[in-house]
Design goal:
about 350 residues, alpha/beta, Udp-n-acetylmuramoylalanyl-d-glutamate--2,6- Diaminopimelate Ligase, Chain: A, domain 1, UDP N-Acetylglucosamine Acyltransferase, domain 1, twelve-stranded mixed β-sheet, nine-stranded parallel β-sheet, 4 helices, 37 strands
Length: about 350
């Protein structure tokens, strides 16, 4: 691809360099070669620009580059431009339509002619598999499931009964959608009585879910993941939860039942959300934090229990000096005691 074509594709402007230069790939600063485009987004990597062998580089409009031998492409967001380039050089492989002889398809199920159904896939009764769907080997689809156009389910994924998966979703290996919610009632004899989990999960369009994650169905009604949300590996989403559009849920995060997550929310790694709580639109919860109350729209919170991030930073700074404060208090106590003794004389 010519550099000029790449600039048009990514919405960039060539500042220096020849637009006819052939660019064959995209790579990081440290491994890029003369026919690769790279990028700089984080200032801490600026020293690597001097050593990179890249033929071209995406930079933000305000960035300064001191290499005359590298073609410079100015963009609004260098990382986004690089991602677009990487996607252009590594497009999704085409769907190989057909049903493997070892696949099992239940009664009254509809599978589009151009769907790709891999080895040992099991599709239950009354399912609908739409155009361009790819089910890799050993995917299990229970009865009554619908899967929208262009969705990809990788090996080992299980979709439980009556769940709905939208179009252009990606679900990675060994994730389970629609497993029983963790619902039990305690009897007078203090035994746990399982509550039937007869609801279902709805995954809207353009959702990506990492490997080994679980999204539980509720006892009634639905758990819903809305359009554009990205969920990492090893995430647990409890029964009756809802997650808004374009949210980002990072690894090892856990949502207790009936949590309500707004649009464009970011939950960093190992965040815990207590049940029946609401996290407002555009809020962020930093890594290893846990909620004990609702989180307002646009808030950034940290800690256990989580509170306003700036206050948390000040608190952690003070926490590191607790040993020093203890010594000061002991000295003050001793001095007060001495003064009291002097006053008694």
């Amino acid at each position: 691809m010519k550099l000029s074509e790449l600039a048009i594709l990514t919405g960039g402007t060539i500042e220096t360099g020849n637009g006819d230069t052939e660019i064959m790939g995209a790579a990081g600063l440290d491994i890029a070669g003369p026919q690769d485009v790279t990028f700089i987004a984080n200032p801490k990597y600026t020293p690597q620009i001097a050593a990179t062998n890249a033929g071209a580089i995406f930079v933000a409009k305000e960035a300064q580059i001191n290499r005359e031998d590298i073609a410079v492409v100015r963009t609004d967001d260098a990382y986004v431009a690089y991602t677009m380039a990487l996607r252009a050089f590594h497009p999704d492989p085409p769907v190989t339509s057909g049903i493997h002889p070892s696949a099992v398809i239940g009664e009254n199920s509809k599978v589009a002619d151009d769907a790709q159904i891999g080895a040992n896939v099991v599709i239950g009764d009354s399912c609908e598999i739409e155009s361009g769907v790819r089910l890799f080997p050993n995917v299990t689809v229970y009865d009554g499931v619908s899967i929208g156009k262009g969705t990809v389910l990788h090996s080992g994924v299980s979709i439980r009964e009556n769940c709905q998966i939208g179009a252009k979703c990606i679900i990675h290996n060994n994730t389970t959608i629609g497993s029983d919610g963790f619902g039990f009632a305690r009897t007078p004899e203090k035994k746990w009585l399982k509550i039937p989990q007869v609801g279902h999960v709805v995954i809207e369009d353009d959702v990506e879910i990492g490997s080994n994650s679980s999204i539980d169905c509720p006892s009634v009604g639905e758990s819903r993941i809305k359009t554009g949300t990205r969920i990492d590996n090893l995430v647990q989403i409890g029964h009756s939860c809802s997650i808004g559009e374009d949210s980002l849920i990072c690894a090892q995060t856990g949502l207790a039942g009936s949590s309500e997550i707004g649009d464009r929310v970011i939950l960093a790694g190992q965040v815990g959300i207590a049940g029946h709580l609401k996290v407002g639109d555009d809020a962020s919860i930093t890594a290893k934090s846990a909620t004990s109350h609702d989180v307002d729209e646009g808030a950034v919170v940290s800690g256990i229990p989580a509170f306003e991030n700036r206050d948390w930073l000040r608190s952690t700074a003070a926490f590191r000096r607790i040993g020093e404060y203890a010594k000061i208090i002991r000295k003050l106590e001793k001095r007060v005691s001495e003064l009291e003794e002097e006053l008694k004389k």
